[in-house]
Amino acid sequence: MNSADQYLDLYKKELLNNVLPFWLTHSKDAEYGGYLTCLNRDGSVFDTDKFMWLQGRQVWLFSMLYNQVEQNTEWLDFALHGASFMEKHGRAEDGSWYFSLTRDGRPLVHPYNIFSDCFATMAFGQLYKATSEPRHADIAYNTFNSILDRQTNPKRQWSKAVAGTRPLKNFALPMILCNLSLEIEHLLDAAMVDALIKDCIHEVMDVFYDEKSGLILENVAPDGSFVDSFEGRHLNPGHVIEAMWFIMDLGERLGDQTLIERAKDLTLKHLEYGWDSTYGGIFYFMDIKGRPSQHLEWDQKLWWVHVETLIALLKGYRLTNDEACLRWFEKVHDYTWQHFKDAEYGEWYGYLNRRGEVLLPLKGGKWKGCYHVPRALYQCWKTLEKIAVKNDGGAARRLNVMS
Amino acid sequence: MNSADQYLDLYKKELLNNVLPFWLTHSKDAEYGGYLTCLNRDGSVFDTDKFMWLQGRQVWLFSMLYNQVEQNTEWLDFALHGASFMEKHGRAEDGSWYFSLTRDGRPLVHPYNIFSDCFATMAFGQLYKATSEPRHADIAYNTFNSILDRQTNPKRQWSKAVAGTRPLKNFALPMILCNLSLEIEHLLDAAMVDALIKDCIHEVMDVFYDEKSGLILENVAPDGSFVDSFEGRHLNPGHVIEAMWFIMDLGERLGDQTLIERAKDLTLKHLEYGWDSTYGGIFYFMDIKGRPSQHLEWDQKLWWVHVETLIALLKGYRLTNDEACLRWFEKVHDYTWQHFKDAEYGEWYGYLNRRGEVLLPLKGGKWKGCYHVPRALYQCWKTLEKIAVKNDGGAARRLNVMS
After folding, report:
1. CATH number of the domain at A32-160, out of 3.10.330.20, 1.10.510.10, 1.50.10.20, 3.40.50.410?
2. B292, A360: Cβ pair inside 8 Å?
3. Superkingdom of the source (chains A, B) (predicted)?
């Protein structure tokens, strides 16, 4: 239905006119600092706990927009508002980041979750680009080093697994390091970044890759082999697809077209595998042997899965010209905008049931904040711009033709 | 549609002819001992991990049937088969029970979960009644004492909550102690049982009871007050209703008709509150302020919620003659048998989506085993027998009239 210019306009305006104002208006905690992220459909607050994942992601998002889109001081101030709360209250004595705090900053949940640290690193790394404040760089750098230190035991003393019986490693950490390595490249020495990137790509594309099925697993044995257990059979198509655009970014940086082609192929493969041919949308979780999942939410349609897919498809098209990416983009775009976008209030819905009906009317909660939707809108907007420039209008025609 | 005699017949035959044969046929691990509980619709095995909750519950179930229904040596042998695996592999060095083991008995998940110990206590307490084997009594007795020792810190070192910030206690332990106190009464001294029963009843009926709403909360402050947080607002109607028949059992033992009436009233209150007026069935989780749940499975219909409700309604009717219990029994009976029973293969489905469609076709998994369905069929059968005897046919007519 849309030309590339129309898509571009849609993504850009949705970001700037609907989604950002939602968070700027509703999520600032003027009283205690930081952000309130548990927001109802209309932006009213339904819970005041503060989750470090979401505080860090929101600081990152507004810093990134300030750095990449426009030096809008409202955005930088908003990022600093969150960062200052994080600095003051977010860390345990050993410097690792709590999982959650009360509204006034008292620790609620121990630093059991390494991704709190990942998002804090992203936040302060990106913020430092805007402020040049050495303190911000230090926080990012020190947190990043502590992530590397604990990467073989990310859950620390809170891990319930008996060591040695069935060792497994999880896809999420190497996957996020693919993204983090570029995010904080400016703080690390070049040799370290090169080694890190090489290692992440190997983990994501080889170690977690299952030859037999051609799919990427969520949990594997330390040597990368398949483990026939609930965890070993577990697939998360959206997670893989998100990783594939991180890999495409790395491929572009390295000038490695083979890597890019493979990431694009794996995007399409997992999208085809995860697509619900009955009701549309992408399943949240699957089992590689088709066995019952241990996750009751397996058939739900989650916002982040769909918006990350849009990014991967546009990047895949831009970097490989594979028209299958465009065909899928239009299909996933239609599903996503029809089901997740809320015509009345800025931010999008997050949780739909299998049929695409709203399951939880929240706009933000314990796991959903100011991150995937605005990041995807930004990434799609910028990628569509590059497509238009590269093809000198050709892609615009193509997108029109394909619809 | 049914008279009491017809219901009685239905519940009894379903237990003896369909459900028990399913587990006897499919769940015995003849090679490594214990039970295989991850079973597909037809009973075929889809995973071989062994979860201590489910091993203990199955030992308990077959021991209980041997003790209460018929001294069938196949049942006792089957219970001993599981008990011997548990004895050999189930405990850590400190005597607490692992959460899960590999098929051959190597520990997978640490003893972080106190309910593994609760079900082990029930298992060996009930088994001892059948075997008079002192070893079985010792295991039950020692495990029970360790539960009491750790009841203020049930998750031990694996608790992620920072101590002191927002102390909460959970309903599940006092609730299960209501049941456990009667289950292992034969192993404890009378004064201890009396004190324990008094304490459990107080916890369940007073401490977790929220005056304002008239509902029982899942998590409260140590003094029983409401905490406005995700955990504090969380409601689990099925859990409360299950607790209410434990309370009715205690009320009957104590001859406390006031307590019984209150438990019956709370059963009806939570059933009305939790009933899905759009699609039928009882919601899994709710929020006392109607706010979005943090649990994505909140609107699903789970087997145990429904079969526990059937027990509570029949006991409520038997002990109070409140006809509202009968009206609801027929409604919940119809929903439950129409949606959870599998016409082809013995054991029932466990997980339905909000509309009552099968969400996971498994008959047993990580959390569903040989427990709620057969226990409920047994409890309903025996309660219907008592109703028939007490009313000398009156209830039979009544059930007929109400339908």
Report:
1. 1.50.10.20
2. yes
3. Bacteria
